[in-house]
From TrEMBL:
Keywords: RNA-binding. It comes from Bacillus salitolerans. It comes from the Bacteria. The keyword RNA-binding applies. The lineage of its organism: Bacteria, Bacillati, Bacillota, Bacilli, Bacillales. This is Ribosome assembly RNA-binding protein YhbY. The gene is yhbY. Residues 1-96 form the CRM domain.
């Protein structure tokens, strides 16, 4: 679990990122979760955009993505979800303790 301090740190890091995935009408599927998992392994921190036509609540989408990709949900702000997962091979972010 992330502490409040770590979440604040990650939010400041994520501020400059652009969303690289979009969840639309079809919601979350296995393929998307797999791609997000792979992207998290490379980047550790990423944003996902929930489109207006998505039939699911953005918090449901956030839960599904973080559970599916075994990632930490950092933040849901507007229609943007911020996810973090420590990389096994490409560790770039050192979290404050």
């Amino acid at each position: 679990m992330l502490t409040g301090k770590q979440k604040r740190f990650l939010r400041s890091k994520a501020h400059h990122l652009d969303p690289i995935f979009q969840v639309g009408k079809g919601g979350v599927n296995e393929n998307m979760v797999k791609q997000i998992e792979d992207a998290l392994e490379k980047r550790e921190l990423l944003k996902v955009s929930v489109l207006q036509n998505c039939e699911y609540d953005r918090y449901e989408v956030a839960e599904e993505l973080s559970a599916g990709a075994k990632a930490e949900l950092v933040q849901v702000i507007g229609h943007t979800i911020v996810l973090y997962k420590e990389s096994k091979e490409n560790k770039q972010i050192n979290l404050p303790s």
